[in-house]
């Protein structure tokens, strides 16, 4: 399960090939990927792709003094002629692939080590691994346990020498050695998301996503449900190359705490880089407009979203923060769900989390058929029901002496997007397999009665109070995320444009301090009673 290596063989299209080729060049000329070769008509699209991938490797070999030294004179002559070729033929492609597959690319071991130890730091901002992860027999790196190389492969060699000049091993590790039978519970909230799992000692652990891992405050576990789009296309390119644990970068898309921090003080059209309504988007049927640092783009409604899905990406980040070489590999996930969402909406949330979490897991899990079948993402319980279980257990109602009589409970969950309620009975189980039994009497809620939605409704009413003045200044507004809104109230001044949405959010953000102050005063007066 831990394999000693002195070199690394990878399939030609593997993303590590490009990264290691770049590092082999050091200060030499970098490969110009924008220079498009011209092919003869008979060359297939598949072979065109292979040739372009091989050019990265050929460039690295030709511009690395150590690698070039081992090339035959004939092969060096071929590379020189290839650079002058006006059109690329099938014969030239075949010869190029042969040279690439039979030659070695030499890479500085320190460069390689730095890349591999920072892989999860680059992806999601986790702490970099210690060098023992790569060099110790008890360690080993998941991402070096690569799939069997195809005919078109690339071999990398490293100057990993001990003090006596002897070549040392580094280690690949199968993640099947690190499976954890525990369950991860995820509460995907409107304003924040929490995730927890049980560690090897049986202790429940909460998860922090993003840059607050070392913060002593408990607020680090309230992960803001927000995504920041920075270099969306670059992220998608990296995300799509591999089915599992792709080499993505969090500076292309940020989530949770880092995204929230970056959103502070942002104004104008830059607000469209931030998507803080993931859960409302899932419960509505509306197209959304966004931008990143490069360009504008649109998202279809959640129901019709077939491609880039921010909820899937958010789940992927959660998965990478849980499933890594600091921790273990978890295969069972339970999601809480809002009661009033339509069945197909809740199921699509589940599917989005399933795809994102699956993407975050190492490849070995799915190469092993028996292990792959144990991967599950389930909608396990409604959000107020989950709270009821947690509250009853925290008050000691799981102890047998407190279960002599049934305990009747009622939970009202006033969240950021919805209000849900659940009533039922908690009692001792008659089955020896379980400690307690929970019976639901009733559940329900309001799909729109949430704090964030009420804030938008308040902004809408503030706009109404000042409508004549704002009308004269040609200020438009968007419809708040609330039902029973009179869409004719402001005529053509109610729009779904970028400016209208921005105005609604700007008014809401100005009202937020008032809303919080009012809530604090209400709670204080309520306690005095």
TrEMBL record:
- SUPFAM superfamilies this protein is in? Actin-like ATPase domain (SSF53067)
Q: Which InterPro entries match?
A: ATPase_NBD
Q: Which domain of life is it from?
A: Bacteria
Protein's name in the database: Dihydrolipoamide acetyltransferase
